[in-house]
Amino acid sequence: MNKFSSPTLQKFVALAGLFAFLIVLPHFLKYHHQDFLIFLTINILVVVSYRLVTLTGEWSLIHAVMMGVGAYTSALLSKSFGISFWITLPLAGVAAGFAAALLSYPLFRLTQFYFLIGSFAAGEAIRLCWIQFIQPFGGTGGISAIPSPELLDIDFLEPIPYFYLVLIIVSVCVFLLYRIEKSRIGLTLHAVHWKAVLAESVGIDTWNYRSLAFITGSLFVGLAGALKVHYIGTVAPKQFGIGFMVFILIWVIVGGYRTFYGVILGAIILSVLDEVFRGVNQLRPAIYGATLILFILYLPGGLESVLRKIKFFNQAKSQRFTWWRYLT
Q1: d(Cα 266, Cα 302) in Å, to the nearest integer?
Q2: Which one of 49, 51, 159, 324 is at 20 to 30 Å from 247 when CA atoms are compared?
């Protein structure tokens, strides 16, 4: 076998090529599209961290609010106390994870539909606190003039340097989430989803694993919230409302949540589609709604199922060709 045909080497070459493309890409985009690229990269971390929560079979409506917990934590620490971004960033993840840990006991006493509604209620309670307590959260107006990161003489107010920062942090986080899923913990989370009774019969505490997935997913989405607000310079409750949570759900469902790359595919394609229709804001909710309905009816496996079918077809075609050559 050719040494360059190793699957691991092929993946490495593909990733290296992708990173080289992403490093060069911002220099050929307009200012507005550079902003879009930053938000798209952050949203990839949002959907990948949400997928970790769904591995146990529990879909929540609080993930966007957990992102807001990280965003408010980093904004308050950096503006009110003058703490560096490089310290507030990990603290944002810790705060979101800690909030998820506090909510785990009441929420995971519920399952399925009741868990979904309970998570929505808990998220709205947190969001109402941001609105009602003007000190320190700023009420409906939120917090503004959030300082940008500082490192040497790099100007992170410019989109290209900030994109490189986001790309590095998100890449590390996505890699860690991938390794978690492929680890024994990730396999156990799958077991909790598909065979919960069997998992409990062999001594697995399903409550602990559901809580672990929820806390870990919240920790990573808290980092995403900090990355977002330190670029736009403001944070407000409306940024993390049910509307944004619906977008996350649509990205995951349309992309497909059975594979790691499915949710990334959904976030990229729908975000690009959303950008294309930015000039007709009135039609955007209808387009998103129609897309979701069509996928649920005709492609419930999401876009990832199309790629699997193409791969299966190519493998079958290759096998037929091999047998034909053997017979002739």
Answers
A1: 8
A2: 159
For residue 194, give both structure tokens.
């598909």
Provide the 10 A C-beta neighbour count for residue 3: 6
Q: Which helix (H) or strand (E) holds 55?
A: none
175: left (phi over 0), alpha (psi -120 to 50) or beta: alpha
Q: CA–CA distance from 302 to each of 255, 296, 327 (Å)?
A: 5, 8, 39
Per residue in 245-272, pLDDT tens? 989 999 998 888 888 888 999 999 888 8
Whole-number Å distance between alpha carbons of 195 and 297: 26
> With 80 as the cut, is the pLDDT of residue 33 above it?
yes
List CB contacts of 240: < 8 A, sequence separation 6 or more. 64, 65, 67, 68, 71, 127, 225
Q: From CA 89, how far away is CA 69, in angstroms rounded?
A: 12
Decide if pLDDT at 1 tops 50.
no
Which residue in this structure is represented by tokens 């096998």? 319
